[in-house]
Request: fold
Amino acid sequence: MNTKELQYFMKVCEEQSINKAAGKLFITQQGLSRVIANLEKNLNVKLLERNARGVFPTEEGQYLYEKCEKLICMLDEIEAGMKQMAKQEEAAYDRLRVWGHACIFLSIDPEIQVRAQGKWKLPAEEFLNQELIDKITQSEIDVGFIIGKTVPENL
Reply:
């Protein structure tokens, strides 16, 4: 049993028709019937009653449908949350502004440079130590590398 099978089952219940559900799911009626039959076989219960008026869930089918609603909702929330977290992590990388003397960046391990490419705003120009300190205190940059001078205590 997988989420796709459960979603297909739910669509059949909602449409009360395998043909209509198949059309909305963009699969064949035969394919959808096989999915439902496989689900019934795996669960060892009859999930749907078929009659002239349509397809309706059995007691077991109704139970499964109600549980599926909650499960699918939770899975959608998880997926949305994970995507949001990935966006936030990606955005955090985009905002990291790193500056320093060019000679410092030339000495950084090439593997780190490759990982940082596209994630950090690396310097396009050099700044003097005091200029870097000023940019950090004014929140214009996040990280600054200076050479040969002690950083002020307020940083």
